[in-house]
């Protein structure tokens, strides 16, 4: 069974929000309808987005780093949002594994949002309908578009190629190989929802590796000097 998904490389995401704006632009003009925006240029803007980028600081001072974490619907293989929908508006499509919403059936009850452990469903306050990422389902199968353009808008807009798209069930696909080679992981797998989207973990940069080498060398030098000054008794340490 085909399972289309995103694989996001956290090592090269720079938090530019190109994925956010391109997603908003495409889905506002596509099948998803006009997504609400209230006071977009005021101090407290509020709107509906399918894709958001969360930025936070990781580590302990002074060894900290900024992490940009894009998050949208994970198109779970066992989506908890589907069985709770009282009208059948939320469903998982068999041919490509996408979790979608039939807007004609949605009554805006928010049951699916409560059931989603990832907080990626948003109510459109203007239309009173639940919305979420569709992986640009109206684009990826559109034969009127050149094949190179049959990808989600966020993937095409990413300037660093941090977002990959494909069938994670195809062992020869780009996304499957990236998951296997880079140790791709699911978000909160303990919930048992089997998220289709995966993340590629951050790798240490050459600067970080060099800093660790310098620290180890400095620690070794300090131990050697302490031993020369008689501050360390190796025999006593060995007996402990």
TrEMBL record:
Ranges of residues in domain 4Fe-4S ferredoxin-type: 4-34, 64-95, 97-126
Alphabetical keyword list: 4Fe-4S, Iron, Iron-sulfur, Metal-binding
An example molecular function term from Gene Ontology annotations: metal ion binding
Entry keyword Iron-sulfur: yes
Protein name in the entry: 4Fe-4S ferredoxin-type domain-containing protein
């Amino acid at each position: 069974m085909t399972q289309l998904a995103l694989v996001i490389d956290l090592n090269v995401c720079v938090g530019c929000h190109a994925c956010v704006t391109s997603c908003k632009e495409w889905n506002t003009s596509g099948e998803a309808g006009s997504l609400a925006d209230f006071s977009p240029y005021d101090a407290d803007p509020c709107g509906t987005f399918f894709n958001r980028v969360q930025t936070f600081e990781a580590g302990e001072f002074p060894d900290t780093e900024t992490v940009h974490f894009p998050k949208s619907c994970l198109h779970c293989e066992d989506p908890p949002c589907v069985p709770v929908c009282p009208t059948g508006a939320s469903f998982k499509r068999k041919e490509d594994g996408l979790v979608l919403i039939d807007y004609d059936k949605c009554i805006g009850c928010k049951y699916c949002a409560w059931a989603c452990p990832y907080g990626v469903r948003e109510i459109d306050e203007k239309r009173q309908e639940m919305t979420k990422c569709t992986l640009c389902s109206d684009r990826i199968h559109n034969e009127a578009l050149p094949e190179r353009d049959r990808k989600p808008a966020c993937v095409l807009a990413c300037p660093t190629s941090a977002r990959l798209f494909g069938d994670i069930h195809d062992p020869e696909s780009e996304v499957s190989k990236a998951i296997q080679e880079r140790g791709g992981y699911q978000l909160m797998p303990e919930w048992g929802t089997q998220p289709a989207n995966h993340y590629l973990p951050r790798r240490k940069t050459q600067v970080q590796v060099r800093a660790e080498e310098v620290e180890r060398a400095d620690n070794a030098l300090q131990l050697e000097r302490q031993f020369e000054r008689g501050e360390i008794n190796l025999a006593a340490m060995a007996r402990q």
